[in-house]
Amino acid sequence: MSHNGLIEGPDGNLRCFWHDNKDDYLAYHDNEWGRPVDNDTRLFEKICLEGFQSGLSWLTILRKRENFRAAFAGFDFERVAEFDETDVERLVQDAGIIRHRGKINSTINNARRAIELRKEFGSLATYFWSQEPGAHARPAKLDYETLRTLGKTEESTAISKDLKKRGWSFVGPTTVYAFMQAMGLVNDHIEGCCMREAVEDERRNFVRPV
């Protein structure tokens, strides 16, 4: 890693350090991380997987993501909401995912809460994007040292508190902030990363759900 949190990729371009030039992680960095998402299934999937990631690395979850999708009905929360104790026992025995009973139960619970949230706001996307931080709330320049301090923010803390009031679980402020970074509610590609401007252009042209 260079002093400013960037590393040179196999193509010679500088990128955020964290993907460590692992092929699958680099592809995630370039093609997914920070790009705005308004698809409810993807939003639900991501916030659940961030919950599973707690205490682990995202790369561990990324490499099991297809297994998680197969296990949790593609993260169709209408279907996951119908899971029962038989499904919980099935998932606890599934070596392809993280076999944490609490997190499995949390995903089923959160699917039921997601249905309630959609009824109230019309979509999960509308709920989450209505809480996008304004430009004034973001650092003027996002360098590596600044990024290190952003494990959680006022916005992620507020969303976390609101979700918990609504009965969601495994949605602490740090988990919510990681979700916001990944789903494009903020652009946390470091200054100098070759993807930062592309992601910012995509965010600029993104039509926020209302």
Give a concise summary.
The protein has helices spanning 23-31, 40-53, 58-63, 65-71, 77-80, 85-92, 101-121, 124-129, 144-148, 154-165, 173-182, 196-205, and strands at 6-8, 14-16.
* DSSP helix fraction: 40-55%
Please name the CATH architecture: Orthogonal Bundle
**Highest-level CATH class:** Mainly Alpha
The H-level CATH homologous superfamily, spelled out, is Hypothetical protein, domain 2
* Total helical segments: 12
Uncertain segments of ≥5 residues (pLDDT<50)? none
Domain unit count:
1
Shape: globular
Biggest pleated sheet: 2 strands, antiparallel
Number of strands: 2
Describe the overall structure.
- Helix 2 runs antiparallel to helix 7.
- The protein has 12 helices and 2 strands; from the N terminus they run ββαααααααααααα.
- It is globular and about 50 Å long.
- A two-stranded antiparallel ribbon has the order 1-2.
- Strand 1 and strand 2 form a beta hairpin.
- The chain has one domain: Orthogonal Bundle (Endonuclease III, domain 1).
- The mean pLDDT is 95.
- With 210 residues, the chain is mostly helical.
